[in-house]
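Morning!

As promised:
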Amino acid sequence: MSKYCFGVDVGGTTVKMGLFSIDGELLDNWEIVTRTENAGVHIVPDIAASILDKIAEKSMAREDIAGVGIGVPGPVDENGIVYKTANTGWGVFNLKKELEDLLDMNVKTGNDANVAALGEMWKGGAQGYQNVVLVTLGTGVGGGIIINGRILTGATGAGGEIGHMHIQDGESEQCGCGNHGCLEQYASATGVVRLANRKLAACDKPSVLRTGEISAKAVFDAVKSGDALAIEIIEEFGEYLGKGLALVGGVCNPEVFVLGGGVSKAGTILIDYVQKYYQKYVFNGSREAKFTLATLGNSAGIYGAAKMVL
Amino acid sequence: MSKYCFGVDVGGTTVKMGLFSIDGELLDNWEIVTRTENAGVHIVPDIAASILDKIAEKSMAREDIAGVGIGVPGPVDENGIVYKTANTGWGVFNLKKELEDLLDMNVKTGNDANVAALGEMWKGGAQGYQNVVLVTLGTGVGGGIIINGRILTGATGAGGEIGHMHIQDGESEQCGCGNHGCLEQYASATGVVRLANRKLAACDKPSVLRTGEISAKAVFDAVKSGDALAIEIIEEFGEYLGKGLALVGGVCNPEVFVLGGGVSKAGTILIDYVQKYYQKYVFNGSREAKFTLATLGNSAGIYGAAKMVL
């Protein structure tokens, strides 16, 4: 009977790592630098070395370790094959096999957003649920979908990529993905700024937002202080995001949507605006879905990664 | 080792039934009338009696029967609980338990569209795939989603209800579900007629469609004969459906979309128009999805129902 497992969350700057008990207690956590040079060839050996160091440091027996879960910032399929990951420099290779060979341990792989959803289900905002959609509202919009307790990976690891659903016709600006009118263009932190700048330019109503730097936080703070123009902006934001999640809801019929990422620091006011428009657009059968905030922050990835091996 | 199983597909007029070998050969099929009176109380006993009759007729041993799968035209959850089904008169009850008690056999339940998707995966247009979206283009638009070989049921049995995704702002007509701008309003057989009538009213271009009755078949036939206005109509239809499936593709990243239902009798020309707009709107990571036509027709339901018990 194993006692421990490791959760690894690979980012473009650092690799976050955690040692967990098999019932989900985070016993230790640390970071190493992500060495992206030379197409990221050092990253996997660095991770393996760090895990072996930790095992030695803690005098752990190998048979007490259930395995290592690892989340990566890009598509990865059910077999552990990574399909190019811009932030790490990686091309196409079998991450699972490479790490298993280095560690002689069971390794499970997943996309970071999907893995974070699993973490929130296990120990975060979606505890007790089995059908979960995690929506990460950061610089972009990421998503992770859990169906009956399992990650929806999809055919090529692109399952849950809700940020690039086409949500608006006639958008003139191009999304980072090359398309026009993606959810991410309106519902991310940069999307809130885009909506704010457009609204400010389109009218001359007074607003605290007309002085100082525009950020998603500044707009939500202005909403909380009752600024009428900021409220208009966040109504628009809420309609885009609520409509987008209504589409996801109609397809997946989740029990709960978990809102995470930097924008979610706005708090429960975010849920108020999103849920209002979710209810407007969603199919009856998926209307009962709950909305909650993510609670694990940047640690969701290591929790979910660890959960994959259990 | 079991040798046989039954597949049952409950419709509002008839219940389709099939006897299968466990490797998927349809050995016998028949129908009984769906008695919807008195809140449909006779339906489940009628099904049980018909199965017991068939077992007696074929002199089958009970231990040779793996069980009975049953698809119903409404939401049904993982536990077999049906949540009101307009076409049958049913309220809320445990279908699985009731049929198991009557038959003393293993029973599996599912929504008819989801079950049909499983049938197409097992023996129809999606053979060899494990991540499948079945799109049924009939009077309405139905959907069934298979992830890793398993039906995406969702929290309350509403998974895969893609016909009611909000796809168009500003629609004045109301959908049967109560919302406005659902995919079903444009991509069903009645949707094609709606688009055709609107196009014919909005311009005075010549078209064979200006004489005779407008139907989805008539519009597709006109496209095949090179009618310019019909082509405009089906371009519009293709854009709605392609955009809708691009949303599903971004969420689920399937290997294949299977197009079924009456509208799919138009043939491969349907795929040409849908795939063109799917490619326009979908996220890169889900661009490789294939499109194919359903091959089991009205039998997809009994195939999928049977597959559930295997």
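The interface with chain B takes residues 75, 78, 131, 143, 145, 147-148, 150, 152-162, 164-166, 177-179, 182, 243, 246-248, 250-255, 281, 283-286, 288-289 of chain A (CB under 8 Å).

Hope this helps with the figure draft.
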